[in-house]
Amino acid sequence: MDLIANKKESNSLGKKDEKGQILNPPYEIEKCGQIVAFPGKRLLTYDDVINRVDAYFDIGIYIINMYEKDSAETLIQSIETQTLEGIPEIIQGSGSCLKIEDKKSNIRKSFSMCLPDKETAKQIQNIFNEFLYNCNQPDVPCDHTESIFAVKDDGTKRLISTRLVKRFSKMKFGKDKDKLTDCLDDETKNNKENKK
Fold this sequence. Notes:
Elements: H1 3-7, E1 21-22, E2 35-45, E3 48-59, E4 63-67, E5 75-80, E6 97-102, E7 109-114, H2 118-135, E8 148-151, E9 157-160, H3 165-173, H4 177-195
Parallel strand pairs: 1-2
Antiparallel strand pairs: 2-3, 3-4, 4-5, 6-7, 8-9
Helix pairs in contact: 3-4
């Protein structure tokens, strides 16, 4: 029962979407509901950046999963995207391993995500940037016609707005969850066009 077969043509909400998954590089999302899934490696300990073992990862707007291989039965650990504190950074000395760390919940946990090279690691960092700052903010309104951006120290843009927070929260956790994702998908497209 491989993950790709189970999720084929579905997005992070389980909705049918022919472009719901990105399985090959270059890794770049077009919609906030997409899932990025790929093979990689993981470190056994953070003290040893040389020895690595095979792993499989998927990243979505709500959760990041690490598996032993491309099979749901081999899940090792999951971390909710909202518990990350910023974009995962490269582990010192590893070259291209990111540290995925839950910094906000009571149960602190982390794992490494080793990519084949720095370019691929940068693509995955960009995915996290999209999910954390352009998709998953509780203040991104669907009907807001003016986008206001703040530029972070590393040059990435973060969409900021304070309007319609209550509406977003009700949609996110209520019966209109699908409407929210559609709204976010449109908002992501608009943001990408504005950045060009």
